[in-house]
Amino acid sequence: MHTEIPSPPHWLSSLRSFLRLLIIVLSGSVTGMLVHTMQIYRGNISLDLRKGELPMTWPARTNLAPTLVLFFIAAANFIASVAILSLSFKRSFRRPIRSRDAYRIIAGSFGVILWATALVVFTLLDKASKASLGHYACSNRNIMSNGRFQYRAVCSEQGMAFYLAAGAASAEIVTLLTLAISAIQAHKNKPNLPIINFNEKLPIGPKEECP
């Protein structure tokens, strides 16, 4: 006998789709912003030097590690979120199978850990190194140089990328909570199948004689 497993509330699925779309926008914004930051860093050679201005310089060994860590994790999360959102439109992917719910929760937890790691590493490395891209740009944004606008752009974009990444991590946490709620509700609403005891003896009626 085919037993249909009740589906989770529709509002949870809609909320997850909205949150996944929000994560795509935020992680894509972080990725694009950091790409633009790297373009500014690489493209300061052609700036004109005016009278009274100091030339724009970067440290000989600029520490790009904080920027690169946040960039790679944001890009990976963007690709993964696009793939998850695309698969969510398939009925087989949305069906509340217990093993699949566990897989979603594990994948969501891994995403939260990656975002948390990126934010912590970005903060610690940026503060520890005076030669990091964001730290150096923010320290020199008010210096009268031909690249002061570039310094200010890098400083603001690094800070904005951090806050957008924090927003994406928060959305990932809320998505993980909705997955946990759906898994719990699916487990509670699972129909109880009748238990057949094969050791129980069936009553035997009187034998009918053949005519």
From TrEMBL:
Membrane-crossing residue ranges in chain numbering: 21-41, 64-89, 101-125, 160-184
Record key words, sorted: Membrane, Transmembrane, Transmembrane helix
Name the UniProt record assigns to this protein: MARVEL domain-containing protein
Species this chain originates from: Aaosphaeria arxii CBS 175.79
